[in-house]
């Protein structure tokens, strides 16, 4: 298995080099940013962020929506937040932001429990 993964990595590197740096960078950027994404803004000291990870994350990963809208955690203190196209500041953690093509389309502020979270998320995603 390890040999297969190494061979695949070498092949991808060769293809990227053959295509030229511009094309490889463009392809990599397209792979990293799915059209629909769920960002969860959290803080290391946030109790409700840990509860979200414990109670919601496993259910989300097992859901059909996980393939449609991958979930990614973002530390609210990270420098990269300013580069995200958010509709406003993140004042409460956890805050869940639904992004479509890199633009915020809706958010869920605070921890509401798994059942309510999935209902609110369905509303945000389905209205898109």
Detailed description of the structure:
There is one protein chain. This protein is α+β, with helices and mostly antiparallel strands. It folds into two domains: 1-32, no CATH class; 33-126, Glutaredoxin (3-Layer(aba) Sandwich). It has helices spanning 2-19, 21-32, 47-55, 57-61, 65-68, 114-126; strands at residues 36-42, 71-75, 95-100, 103-109. The protein has a four-stranded mixed sheet with strand order 2-1-3-4, with helices on one face. Strand 3 (95-100) and strand 4 (103-109) form a beta hairpin. Helix 1 (2-19) crosses helix 2 (21-32). The longest helix has 18 residues, at 2-19.
List the helices and strands and how they pair.
Elements: H1 2-19, H2 21-32, E1 36-42, H3 47-55, H4 57-61, H5 65-68, E2 71-75, E3 95-100, E4 103-109, H6 114-126
